[in-house]
Amino acid sequence: YIERKFIKVPKGATWVEATMRTSGFDTARRFFINVVQ
After folding, report:
1. Would you call 1 exposed, middle or buried from its count of C-beta atoms within 10 A (0-12, 13-18, 19+)?
2. DSSP labels, 1-37
3. Which pTM value belongs to this model?
4. Can you give the pLDDT at residue 17?
């Protein structure tokens, strides 16, 4: 299962701060974040 989320960057933005939270997993998971400037 692959889930992709795309976020539109506000015009004039120069930086980002992100927080990821997970819960409810019985086994280890991998998360990948790909960003482009």
Report:
1. exposed
2. -------PPPTT-------------SS----------
3. 0.43
4. 92
